[in-house]
Design brief:
The complex is a heterodimer of chains A (425) and B (497).
Chain A (H helix, E strand, L loop, with lengths): L2 E3 L4 H13 L4 E4 L15 E4 L6 E5 L4 E5 L4 H10 L2 E2 L8 H4 L10 H6 L7 H4 L2 H4 E8 L4 E5 L11 H5 L7 E9 L1 E2 L3 E8 L3 H13 L4 E7 L12 H4 L3 E8 L1 H14 L6 E4 L1 H12 L13 E6 L5 H12 L2 E5 L4 E6 L1 H5 L9 H9 L4 E6 L2 H6 L8 H14 L21
Parallel strand pairs in A: 1-3, 2-3
Antiparallel strand pairs in A: 4-5, 5-9, 6-10, 7-8, 7-9, 11-13, 11-14, 12-13, 12-16, 15-17, 15-18, 16-17
Helix pairs in contact in A: 8-12, 12-14
Chain B lengths: L8 H5 L1 H11 L6 E2 L2 H4 L16 E3 L4 H14 L2 E5 L15 E5 L6 E5 L4 E4 L5 H8 L4 E2 L12 H7 L6 H4 L6 E7 L5 E5 L10 H5 L8 E8 L1 E2 L3 E9 L2 H13 L6 E6 H11 L9 E9 L1 H17 L4 E4 L3 H12 L1 H8 L2 E4 L9 H15 L3 E6 L4 E8 L6 H18 L18 H4 L2 H14 L17 H5 L17
Parallel strand pairs in B: 2-4, 3-4
Antiparallel strand pairs in B: 1-2, 5-6, 6-10, 7-11, 8-9, 8-10, 12-14, 12-15, 13-14, 13-17, 16-18, 17-18
The chains are: A alpha+beta (425), B alpha+beta (497).
């Protein structure tokens, strides 16, 4: 039977980890459990459920800062920010819906968001969760309290452990409090749409847009078959793929820059400016990777590929060609989502690894990374879900893990399954 | 009194052998400095109150040499102090009598500009401004701009996670670095990060940035470059109290406006700078705000107008808008010369660097006036108002017995005050040796031990930049011991299912 521990205070959290340490009981750490299927399954007899460590501790809009217990539902935080016309600038989408068909909107907790270092379309301009985490408090695998950072955005006091905790998937410590930078919503936004079916041409258009003076805050490409998701009035008639470029800021500036951008990209295809109300829904589609959500793509495999943005168009075209899958680009080509039908994946020589070899070979030339986001548990146990690290870096990472969680009790095997490669756990 | 680790006599006794080994690694003339008169320029960095002649200075020219030096030092247990341009203000490059200072200033080439990915690959000795100079002909620039940008190196910027006046809008060094090549004390050459945004494993780039030379030596840097905004204009706004000035900053941000620069000065700082550079600052105000808006012309004109109205509502008694680039630069000249201006009216000054939640500004300034009386020394304040980073300039006379100690005690009290209101010890200058012994004001022993455990993962023998950042160096054995008491199996407080 799986033992579930649900601490309600930071002290109880420390006791729970202390118990796990004393009894050498590895823990699976969860918030709401919405991203449990991301990474490798953690097989433990005890679950540390942090969802009761919940609540906003302070939110000061004029200081651009919010602090909350890690188990606070993301939906609560987003609602509080929306009330003051603010947002997380890194624009996290509804990642859980890519993993699990039953996830509602804004599923998950703020701690889970940070632990997975998620980010949406604006990452190309402002970074990911790691760039907005000002400080945290946690309990390490040594069952000791530790904290780093603070509540101010300019801080170089001691090592920046916040960066380390963001994206560590709960393998170094269990955060109970996180403090993040928030930003005001822009006065308005607009999206410039360019008809473009070829991912290589789309990559070029996005590169030109990002290199222009127009401060593009997001750049995505959506393939012809998925274009209807954007619901651009003319999209159906175009019957083509679309490049979407977002401009945000004060009204006169947005209008001026959108015009300038249309002129700069006229050579790529029909160009069209989408007004604010519709612009917002387009970027929700992109942030949520709506064409590839689990509920509408049962049984398919989803990869998340990260490459230098300017190489995105070319890599995307090759990924489509070699995998026979569907793809979508975000981050001006820096992020490529590739969805492969499960049956296709099973029919290639390197099955059942979800074409990991094929995909990672393609991205290797440009120093890219490929992470497997959605696949059956069986495939995830047989494949390195996260891109394998360079051996010299892996050695350092293993030592960091060993020093903060010497008994390997925090999320063992989450980043690399124990059966494939001991991840210091 | 600052205490540094005791010099290792065994190392000092081997100095000749070490010099010979270094000359084998770096054959070019001038690559290994051993004579006292030539070592002298390296005896301190920008924190000139502390000086120590290094045992040897080496100037490697390539990554292979850095790797060979570090490997030798690791094998022979010799301490190492990395050094960039030596402009740091917290003593991060303070030498040690038994350590090799490794100067990275021969790594001064721009290696590649990747316009399509908006990235520049440079060697760590390239100056901060040097990056902008290399890309500005195509309308690009590198955003973080510490005030020492003409001299400070990008490698040093990474060590300190340097800021500047544009952080609120454009972020710190850590938000603008994409990747590094770094050599570990064991001589391994690591490539961390790159032009893609996701990286496998833990965020080592994030932990290296701001690690003050304690984790490795960076030998190559990839940074993000941005398109230079089409235009920029500045407003000077005067207020009758710092509280009103602070309220105006809050009101600008509450209106959803994030200015490129948002600076504040108090009356002593205004007076000193105006006398020094004649920037046209009003002398009858208690607080002066310098607000810079950047972007397309149409946006800047629009926002200037809005900020002007907000300032009026907040009780601004003085308002002036730059009408051309010359005037904008004149506005900035006062702020940018604040430090030398104070240097002109006081024989010496000490620049502090705390950050506070902005809303506590007037409380902190009042507290600082009380502390000024208590310690009997004057203080002027310049403030990165947008991000809460405070630079109190404590005026003293080093030739007067006891003045330096008074200034240090005053500075420590100011930083304690910053921490007490929810702020931090350092916003952008780093801890180094200067604030090392104050770390306990902000961190518990366990907090610091967890940081030191990261250090252990990179440098188990604690050879890289010892005596910096951490007030007490815990031994590796102690750091590895598990202290936590196992909690009894039954603990009824925790709900279970």
């Amino acid at each position: 039977m799986v033992d579930v521990l649900s601490p309600t205070t930071p002290d109880q959290l420390r006791d729970a980890v202390g118990w796990a340490l004393g009894s050498e009981t590895p823990l699976e750490i969860i918030g709401s459990g919405s991203k449990r299927a991301f990474g490798h399954s953690v097989r433990t007899n005890a679950v540390l459920d942090c969802s009761k460590l919940s609540g906003i501790l302070f939110y000061q809009p004029e200081e651009l800062v919010i602090s909350a217990r890690a188990g606070t539902p993301l939906a609560d935080i987003k609602a509080a920010l929306a009330e003051k016309n603010q947002q997380f600038h890194f624009e996290p989408g509804n990642f859980p819906a890519l993993l699990d068909g039953s996830s509602g909107p804004d599923a998950g907790t703020i701690g889970g968001l940070v632990a997975c270092n998620l980010a949406g379309p604006r990452r190309i301009k402002v970074g990911a969760a790691r760039d907005h985490l000002l400080g945290f408090e946690a309990v390490s695998g040594r069952a000791e309290d530790f904290k780093s950072g603070g509540r101010v955005m300019k801080n170089v006091t001691g090592f920046d452990l916040s960066k380390l905790m963001a994206g560590s998937f709960g393998t170094l410590g269990v955060m109970h409090t996180v403090t993040l930078k928030v930003m005001p919503n822009d006065e308005t936004s607009a999206t410039v749409i360019v008809a473009c079916s070829d991912p290589r041409a789309a990559g070029k258009a996005m590169t030109i847009a990002m290199g222009s003076e127009n401060e593009v805050s997001a750049a995505a490409w959506i393939a012809p078959e998925d274009a209807p998701h954007l619901d651009v009035p003319l999209a159906g008639e175009y019957g083509s793929g679309l490049v979407a470029l977002r401009i945000e800021g004060p009204k006169p500036s947005v209008a001026w820059r959108a015009d300038a951008l249309c002129r700069a990209l006229a050579g790529f295809g029909e160009c069209h400016e989408v007004p604010e109300s519709h612009s917002r829904s387009i970027w929700k589609v992109v942030a949520n990777v709506a064409p590839f959500v689990a509920s509408e793509n049962t049984g398919s495999i989803l990869w998340r590929v990260s490459v230098p943005p300017a190489s995105g168009g070319d890599i995307c075209a090759r990924l489509i060609e070699k995998t026979g899958g569907r793809a979508m680009m975000d981050w001006a080509g820096g992020l490529i989502w590739v969805q492969i039908a499960a049956s296709d994946a099973a029919n290639v020589p390197d099955a059942p690894d979800a074409m990991a070899g094929t995909i990672r070979d393609i991205v290797a030339n440009v120093g890219g990374q490929a992470n497997l986001v959605r696949a059956s548990d069986e495939i995830r146990q047989a494949t390195r879900v996260f891109h394998p690290e360079d051996p010299a870096l892996a050695r350092i990472n293993a030592r960091i893990k060993e020093n903060l969680d010497p008994m390997g009790i925090l999320n063992p095997g989450r980043i690399a399954p124990l059966s494939l490669n001991g991840e210091g756990a | 009194m600052l205490r540094m680790p005791e010099p290792d006599q065994h190392t000092l006794a081997r100095r000749k052998d070490i010099i010979a080994a270094m000359r084998d690694i770096i054959p070019s003339p001038g690559g290994v400095i051993v004579d006292d008169d030539q070592l002298r320029p390296y005896e301190c960095d920008g924190l000139m109150a502390y000086r120590q002649l290094p045992m040897i200075v080496v100037l490697p020219e390539n990554t292979a040499q850095v790797a060979a030096i570090l490997k030798y030092c690791h094998t022979n247990k010799i301490r190492v102090v990395p050094r960039g341009a030596g402009t740091g203000l917290s003593g991060g490059a303070l030498p040690m009598a038994d350590a090799i200072t490794i100067s990275m200033m021969k790594f001064n080439r721009v290696l590649d500009i990747d316009w399509d990915n908006r990235a520049a690959v440079v060697q760590p000795g390239v100056t901060n401004l040097g990056i902008t100079r290399a890309v500005e002909h195509k309308g690009f620039y590198y955003a973080p701009d510490p005030s020492s940008q003409i001299a400070c190196s990008i490698g040093g910027n990474i060590a300190e996670n340097s800021g500047g006046v544009h952080c609120l809008k454009y972020g710190l060094t850590t938000n603008n670095v994409l990747g590094v090549e770094m050599v570990t004390i064991e001589g391994d050459i690591l490539r961390i990060g790159g032009k893609g945004l996701d990286q496998a494993g833990y965020d080592l780039l994030g932990i290296i940035t701001g690690s003050e030379g304690l984790l490795g030596i960076v030998t190559e840097v990839t940074v993000r470059i941005l398109r230079k905004p089409e235009t920029a204009r500045a407003l000077l706004l005067g207020f009758n109290s710092s509280e009103e000035g602070g309220n105006c900053v809050a009101a600008i941000i509450a209106a959803g406006i994030i200015p490129g620069g948002l600076e504040m000065m108090d009356a002593p700082a205004i007076k000193a700078t105006e006398e020094f550079v004649q920037a046209g600052y009003p002398l009858d105000v208690e607080a002066l705000l310098l607000v810079e808006l950047d972007g397309p012309q149409v946006e800047v004109d629009y926002l200037i107008d809005r900020v002007g109205k907000i300032a009026k509502d907040c009780g601004a008694v003085y308002s002036r808008i730059s009408e051309n680039e010359e005037e904008r630069l004149l506005f900035w000249s006062g702020r940018k010369n604040a430090f030398p201006a104070i240097g002109r009216i006081s024989p010496d000054y000490m620049c502090m660097d705390g950050t506070i939640p902005r809303g506590r500004l007037s409380e902190v300034l009042t507290g600082m006036q009380d502390l000024s009386k208590k310690h009997g020394l004057g203080v002027a304040n310049v403030f990165h108002a947008g991000d809460g980073n405070l630079h109190p300039l404590i005026m003293f006379d080093a030739n007067k017995a006891g003045d330096l100690e008074k200034a240090e005690a005053f500075g420590a009290d100011i930083l304690r005050l910053c921490v007490a209101v929810g702020g931090v010890l350092s916003g952008e200058h780093g801890i180094g040796v200067e604030k090392r012994d104050l770390m306990g004001e902000m961190f518990s022993i366990d907090d610091m031990k967890h940081q030191e455990r990261i250090k252990m993962a990179f440098d188990e023998d604690q050879l890289l930049n010892p005596g910096k950042v951490f007030p007490t160096l815990h031994g590796c054995g102690e750091l590895k011991t598990l202290h936590a008491k196992a909690v009894a199996d039954k603990f009824p407080d925790i709900p279970r299912f």
